């Protein structure tokens, strides 16, 4: 008897391109794999005063991944840089109804929200350059820490029928970030897998504690996402391990790899899910969104950080 001939990848119809196409199809048409609706609407503030750690990238890609699964998702761009608005290709020229007018109470959330062309389930309240002066303008305003919360009323969210809200913060712990922390129930902290990543985290956590004590007792750090992981470096593993040892369960199992596709996507006004759905970056944000949603379906979504 002759031994069976080993199958080549061609014979079994498997090639790297076929595999990527199959992954892309799973990302773009995940019908068979729907994510649970949260038990209650979830408002997550994406914060880290360190710049360039992946706040905006994580906010828009997690939002896009949830939207692809049929969950109505709103991204509130609370950074005068307007990066989330750019990534979602939403108009944000000066004068466009934006989060600035929402903070001033001049327009409602629904009036400022635009539907992203990436998905009818994905909405964005843009940030224009007008927001740049608001850190200073807010100082002299009444209820300066709670203005966003007032605008994000249950009625405002009901009008938009959203399941998830991500607030993309600027890289500072100023009044805009405080407004975001007062308006949310959860904080999502992206941490870059780099040497200095943990620096400043203590300050962020003590600010969160201050907000808990004085302004929003139900706020909790529910999610930490490790970003820009480079598997070729020992350092990335060390940082990952350190963060996991320190923060435990709150850290998502999924780690976002450093990927050129992820960084290229905003240049095309797209999330990585739209730009290259078969890429590792897109798959990892899908996996991270799945974890976020599955935690949301459980009762104890609150973070356990002390
Ligand atoms: N997984 C990744 N792989 C490669 N590049 C990435 C990845 N995630 C983010 N980037 C890039 O790193 C840069 C910083 O990311 P991002 O803008 O999301 O950070 P941020 O924390 O929002 O920054 P800021 O503090 O300025 O708001 C961007 O150029 C982005 O495209
Ligand atoms: Mg940003």
From TrEMBL:
InterPro entries: AAA_dom, DNA_Partitioning_ATPase, P-loop_NTPase. It comes from the Bacteria. SUPFAM superfamilies: P-loop containing nucleoside triphosphate hydrolases. Residues 42-220 form the AAA domain. This is ParA family protein. It comes from Amycolatopsis minnesotensis.
């Amino acid at each position: 008897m002759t031994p069976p001939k080993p199958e080549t990848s061609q014979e079994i119809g498997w090639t790297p391109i076929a595999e990527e196409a199959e992954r892309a199809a799973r990302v773009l048409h995940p019908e068979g794999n729907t994510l649970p609706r949260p038990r209650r609407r979830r408002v997550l503030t994406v914060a880290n005063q360190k710049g360039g750690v992946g706040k905006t990238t994580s906010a828009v890609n997690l939002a896009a991944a949830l939207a692809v699964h049929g969950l109505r998702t709103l991204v509130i761009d609370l950074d005068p840089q307007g990066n989330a608005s750019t990534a979602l290709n939403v108009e944000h020229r000066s004068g466009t109804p934006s989060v600035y007018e929402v903070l001033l109470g001049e327009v409602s959330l629904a009036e400022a929200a635009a539907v992203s062309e990436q998905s009818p389930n994905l909405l964005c309240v843009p940030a224009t350059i007008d927001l740049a002066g608001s850190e200073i303008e807010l100082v002299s305003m009444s209820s300066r820490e709670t203005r966003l919360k007032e605008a994000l009323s249950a009625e405002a969210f009901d009008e938009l029928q959203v399941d998830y809200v991500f607030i993309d913060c600027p890289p500072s712990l100023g009044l805009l970030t405080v407004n975001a922390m007062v308006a949310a129930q959860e904080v999502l902290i992206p941490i870059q897998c780099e040497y200095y990543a943990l620096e400043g985290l203590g300050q962020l956590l003590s600010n969160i504690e201050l907000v808990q004590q004085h302004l929003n007792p139900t706020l909790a750090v529910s999610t930490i996402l490790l970003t820009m992981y480079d598997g070729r470096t020992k350092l990335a593993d060390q940082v990952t391990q350190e963060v996991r040892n320190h923060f435990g369960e709150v850290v998502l199992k999924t780690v976002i790899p450093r990927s050129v596709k992820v960084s290229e996507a905003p240049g095309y006004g797209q999330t990585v899910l739209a730009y290259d759905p078969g890429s590792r970056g897109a798959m990892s944000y899908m996996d991270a969104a799945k974890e976020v949603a599955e935690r949301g379906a459980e009762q104890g979504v609150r973070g356990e950080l002390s």
